[in-house]
Amino acid sequence: MAEPISLASGLLTLATFAFQSSITLYNTIQSFQNHPERVRSLAAELEALQGVLRTLNDTLSTTTDIDVSALTLPLLRCGKACGEFEEELRKCSSRSSSSRTSFRDWAKLKYMGDGIDDFRQLLAGYKSTISIALTDANLRKSSVTAESLQGYKRLIKTATDDLEAHLGSIDEKLETIFARTATESETAELRHMQEDRLSTQQCLQICAQLSDHISQIQLRPTQRSRGSSAESAGVPERIAGEAMQDCKTRLNQATERLEGYMHDVIDRMMTQSKASMAEGEFANLERLREEWSTARQCMDICFNADYNLKKNISIIDNQAIGDETVQFLVSTSEKTIHGKNRGDGFRIRQVGGHLSDESLQQMSRDIAVISSVRSEVLSQEGDTPPGTEDAVGDADRSDFQQRHGRGMKLASKSDLGAGLRTV
């Protein structure tokens, strides 16, 4: 690191810092000849991370109308983690009895008490978070398929689960360090702060569990909306859904306040513990504190991306089989629609686009009236759709149906006029 990098740096500077740090670490790893499977996996993860960071750099260099400022802390921590891991690698290789190019003691390499696999998962978390933030910023302006949106939803879910596990691991390490320090120092104030930290952590877990429970309730379709092809749900369901989403928003706000309080408690505990800790142990504690903050920020990015996806995007896939089918692919709000209307049958009607509630209801009534008039005309002329017998002879009927369908007889002008007057 030629110059110190801090949170005060610009976003493009931080993105460049993370990108260059990942390249330097990759080149250092490649400079050794021996690469066990876990090392090869780490190198592959670094390449994937570089691809995402390159995209972010290009976006920040050419675009000014997207907001990815939430990535400030994750980018800083990503760059520092790569630099710190490289430093540990160089130290470990210098102590090895093997030559530098044939370094074999990969299993001894540790970062924040963890091995290579854990560090690779750490990088994977940064990569996923950056991808989610970029997609979230560009989603409403880009043309994507329903399939890619489903993949995006799976990415958010996987990243959230991994971040929760990572936070749990960090909390266990912090608890171990602070519990030992509190016992050794015999300071009542430090023991009190440790209890305060554990209490705050428990409150954070309660908020997370309640938010997850609300999400599960929202995912269960009601009997009224199950199987519906239109985006608009019933009024009661909509009111309940808005209330639950408001509850999740309030829980998120409470979580932010608890996290801020947790930061303050950890800072005070670090100040109290510094005198009784070795320099290397305290440096590791500082890394854990920074990583805890970063993981929390990454989880906020995932939460906001999931909320924006549900709020702003409707994913609809209509598929109907049968005659006289009506399909709606309609948004009655400002949601962006990603979906398909697919039908297999005779005289399928399809409606798509953005409509007001009133327009959608009127269109539904109009289609119902037209269908009723059509059915009445056909019933007067017999159950079998007429017209095919008049259009072709018996010998050519099969060929006609294969090429053009079974056909129908057009209504007379008087019947059609009566139907239009009824509408």
UniProtKB/TrEMBL annotation:
Keywords: Signal. Residues 2-208 form the Azaphilone pigments biosynthesis cluster protein L N-terminal domain. Residues 1-18 form the signal peptide. Transmembrane segments: none annotated. Residues 376-423 are annotated as: Disordered. The keyword Signal applies. Pfam families: PigL_N. Gene3D superfamilies: Prion-inhibition and propagation, HeLo domain. InterPro entries: HeLo_sf, PigL_N. It comes from Clohesyomyces aquaticus. This is Azaphilone pigments biosynthesis cluster protein L N-terminal domain-containing protein.
